[in-house]
Amino acid sequence: MEITNKFLINDVNLWYSDFQALNNINMDIPEHMITAFIGPSGCGKSTLIKSLNRMNDLVEGCKITGSILLDGENIYGDIDVNALRKRVGMVFQKPNPFPMSIYDNIAYGPRTHGIKSKFVLNEIVEKSLQDAAIWDETKDRLKKSALSLSGGQQQRLCIARALSVQPDVLLMDEPTSALDPISTGKIEELVLQLKKDYTIVIVTHNMQQATRISDNTGFFLLGELIEYGETQQIFSIPQDKRCEDYITGRFG
Amino acid sequence: MRRFDEQLNELNNKLLEMGTLVEKTISVASQALIEQDVEMAKAAIDLETDVAAKEKDIESLCLKLLLQQQPVAKDLRLISAALKMITDMERIGDQAADISEIVVMMKGAPYIKKLEHIPQMATATVKMVTDSIDAYVKKDLKLAKSVIKYDDVVDDLFDIVKNDLIELIRGGNPNSEQAIDLLMIAKFFERIGDHACNIAKWVVFSITGQKK
């Protein structure tokens, strides 16, 4: 199977005012694969994932150089940022459902993008909840508050919400760190199923999770991409001592 | 030192102990063979029981480490290599015991031919086992590779023993049965060399991650 790259990240440097958070990052993120970013806190992995849909634009004093191409187009060029965020959805560490019904959480995005038809919205809500493997648990309570769901269900709801606008890419910043092992297992299964339709980038502190679900892994340290390659390779025979020390818990 | 590193040291020590025990089993078995000492042969058979117990002990330590530490990279390679190595070490113990059983069975009957190359095979295989375990503990890639190469020495010795025994049988030696026993003993030593070679290959894997 020929690999197509979804993102091409070229010579990316990023500063938060005087602090340089990313240092000359170059990496390709292949389509329909799961790419994991690992590294100690403050290494730049969350900054980079947020750069992939320009979430850092919202941070005051943030400056970025270099280019990030999505399907060949520089997302830091003259583009519609709302359209970008529609194509590149994001799921956060802590489930953050809107304080509204389950149905309205999912319909929120499509409505924002102008879909008014009740019939179409119903279809989108059902499909998104099914794709996020939470339809069976919610189909009889769609009008109930999303806040009544458990943490694991809320996170799958947030994934469904991200899927509702039919993105190409799903960014996940530590999506299971606040969840119990059963919910974590469900999300991991879900992510593996989703990769046939989406490109997934995940930040995780859980090394076993990276080995279980990702195809490729990048190890970051102090704003630099130290090692990047097939997950099996990184966790079996890492080439860089800092990477080996980190994943084997001998860091620092 | 953190707990996991202590546990890995414990694993190394246990492997060294098992290695020493295996070497002793081969040495006692070959000494029993040379001196035609039935009691010593029985002692080698008893030692094999200790080798098997050590295998179980190390196996359970490895499984515990896999469960508790969920190792990756070099730690995973070390532990998985140890798990594979102890199987070969245990098989070496079995074969040393098999040799001793033939010695017991021969009941001190005079040899049809002075043993010359079989004791050399014994010395060579003890060296291979010693070096392969040393290579594991010291992470010595060169030493591990030298063990793999040294297997040719044992194989060549086996061919010499085999040809000598064929000559004896061809010459109409009335005690051909013993020739077959000695051939089996030589074959057991040759297999011990193969297992030592396997151990060395796992040592190479534990250091480089490459498995041929």
Q: Could you explain the architecture of this structure?
A:
The complex is a heterodimer of chains A (252) and B (212). Chain A is of the alpha/beta class and 252 residues long. Chain A has one domain: P-loop containing nucleotide triphosphate hydrolases (Rossmann fold, 3-Layer(aba) Sandwich), CATH 3.40.50.300. Helices cover 36% and strands 27% of the residues of chain A. In chain B, 87% of the residues lie in helices and 0% in strands. Chain B contains 6 helices and no strands. The two termini of chain B are 34 Å apart. Chains A and B meet through helix 8 of A and helix 3 of B.
Mean pLDDT of chain B: 94
Query: For this structure, what is the CATH homologous superfamily of chain A?
Result: P-loop containing nucleotide triphosphate hydrolases
Shape of chain B: elongated
CATH level 3 topology of chain B: Methane Monooxygenase Hydroxylase, Chain G, domain 1
Order of helices and strands of chain A: EEEHEEHEHHHHEHEHEEHH
Q: Based on the structure given, which CATH architecture of chain A is correct?
A: 3-Layer(aba) Sandwich
Q: Percent of residues of chain A in beta strands?
A: 25-35%
Q: Count the beta strands of chain A.
A: 10
CATH class of chain B: Mainly Alpha
Helicity range of the residues of chain B? over 70%
Amino-to-carboxy terminus distance of chain A: 40 Å
Report on the biggest sheet of chain A. Answer: 6 strands, mixed
Q: Low-confidence parts of chain B, pLDDT < 50 over ≥5 residues?
A: none
User: What is the helix tally of chain B?
Assistant: 6
The CATH architecture assignment of chain B turns out to be Up-down Bundle
Which strands sit side by side, in order, in the main sheet of chain A? 6-7-8-3-9-10
Low-confidence stretches of chain A: none
Give the number of domains of chain A. 1
What is the third-level CATH name, the topology of chain A?
Rossmann fold
